[in-house]
Amino acid sequence: LAHTKFATTPSGVTLKTSPGQAAKAAPEAASHWTPERRAAAIPRDILKGDDGKWYLRGPDDTLVPYGEEYPSVPTSHRVVLSEPLTWTAGGTVESTTGRLYFEMPQNKKLNRWIEYVCSASVVTDTATGRSLILTAAHCVYDDVNKSFAQDVWFVPRLLDTTGSSDAFGCDQALGCWSADYGVVDSRWTTTRWPNNIAWDYEI
Question: What is the value of pTM for the model shown?
Answer without folding.
Answer: 0.77
